[in-house]
Design brief:
Elements (H helix, E strand, L loop, with lengths): L1 E6 L13 H7 L5 E5 L8 H11 L6 E4 L10 H9 L3 E3 L3 E7 L2 E8 L5 E2 L2 E2 L6 H21 L6 E6 L22 H9 L4 E4 L8 E3 L5 E4 L2 H4 L4 E5 L5 E3 L1
Parallel strand pairs: 1-2, 2-3, 3-4, 6-9, 9-10, 10-12
Antiparallel strand pairs: 1-13, 5-6, 7-8, 11-12, 13-14
Length: about 240
């Protein structure tokens, strides 16, 4: 079994030094990989990303991340990704990382994702150009996730997202916000791609777990939801299990 730590919505600021690294060091002997599910910075500034990058430097296990909406706020997402990549964090966007872990090949396919809503209450590419553009972005994001999941071989596949692929992990958030918190198209991509697990953040007031229509476990790892520095899961041939 592969031991995975995952957390989203860290919202690191320039004063966040020391919030994460001591916990990672304490658990390092029990971890095989760390997944970061977006909103890594508070205001989307490279200076904030530098603080997080310094927390992640030199860890004895790989770190894989996607960005979130906060990381795009100042249109400096490329700089943020570059800052993290300079400390060996693999930042994914419609791409995949293939890792050798405990004799297994772990494939992590990542995409920020987008809103759009869920079956019966979703945006479609019809009407005003602004609405069409919103719905098209959701479709393109899901298509890139599907492609990433199929891009490389892996004995175990994980979908790493920021936006939610299912409604089940949004309970606790106002239903009026759900179309802006995720898209059912992401769940379709997760199921078609054969992922064993999907993790996401973004829904700060949501619920910790649900499943896609195809039965893939989905975990909301927003830090405010999990209530600790990161959640830990064991993944492998069996269904992922939460490690308390």
């Amino acid at each position: 079994m592969i031991r995975v730590a995952a957390v989203g919505d860290l919202h690191f600021g320039e004063d966040s030094q020391g919030r994460l690294r001591p916990h990672l060091d304490a658990a390092s002997g029990d971890l095989d990989v760390l997944l970061l599910a977006g909103d890594l910075t508070y205001r989307g500034l490279p200076e904030e990303a530098e603080v997080l990058a310094s927390e992640l430097e030199g860890l004895p296990f790989p770190v894989v991340a996607v960005l979130g909406n906060h990381d795009y706020h100042h249109d400096r997402e490329v700089e943020i990704a570059g800052t993290l990549a300079s400390r060996d964090v693999q930042v994914l966007e419609g791409t995949a990382a293939e890792l050798e872990v405990r004799g297994e090949r772990l494939l992590v396919a990542g995409v920020k994702g987008f809103g759009g809503g869920f079956a019966g209450a979703c945006a479609t590419e019809f009407g005003e150009p602004q609405v069409r553009a919103f719905a098209a972005e959701a479709r393109r994001s899901a298509e890139s996730l599907r492609t990433a999941l199929a891009s490389k071989d892996g004995s175990c596949r994980i979908a790493l997202l920021h936006y939610a692929p299912v409604e089940g992990t949004l309970f606790g958030e106002h239903p009026g916000l759900w179309p802006f918190l995720g898209s059912y198209l992401l769940a379709e991509a997760v199921d078609v791609g054969g992922a064993a697990l999907a993790v996401h953040g973004h829904a700060h007031g949501g619920s910790p777990e649900a499943a896609t229509p195809g039965g893939t476990p989905v975990r909301n790892v927003a830090q405010s939801v999990i209530g600790r520095p990161f959640a830990m899961f064991e993944v492998g041939e069996a269904r992922p299990a939460l490690v308390q």
